[in-house]
Amino acid sequence: MTPEEVYKIAEAEIGIHETRGPESTQRILEYHNCTSLDASNDETPWCSSFVNWVVCQAGGKGTNSAMARSWLNWGVPIAYPFPGCIVVLKRGKAPSGHVGIFKYRRSPGGWVHVVGGNQSDQVKVSLYAEANVLGYRWEDET
Fold first, then answer.
1. Would you say the pTM of this structure is higher than 0.70?
2. CB 110 within 8 Å of CB 51
3. Dihedral of CA 117/38/20/12: which sign?
4. In whole angstroms, what is the distance from residue 2 CA to residue 64 CA?
């Protein structure tokens, strides 16, 4: 698994979105299948499911958890993020959070661009304040 593969797979999913009403988007259910949550609809929070799916598609092993902050225990922390690494963000109080694939940052202490699932109910690139970053992670290759 390489960061380039992870980023390319995540970017190819941009535009996948939740289905309004009682139906669910099949692709989002596929994301959920990469976790132990056993979710049956696209209304269940799915940012971590998306990242697990992307990592698995790239040949890696994810957290198998639907909890965003589970990624803080995955791989190893990295000091300088690179496109394709995992970024974990604060959202509300613990254990809530958000996780996605890092794209780039505008400037240190500024904004990070993240490709993620369940960002306005879809896969898209969103901006987050870098102050909300809990950690950047990459797989442990040891």
1. yes
2. no
3. positive
4. 19
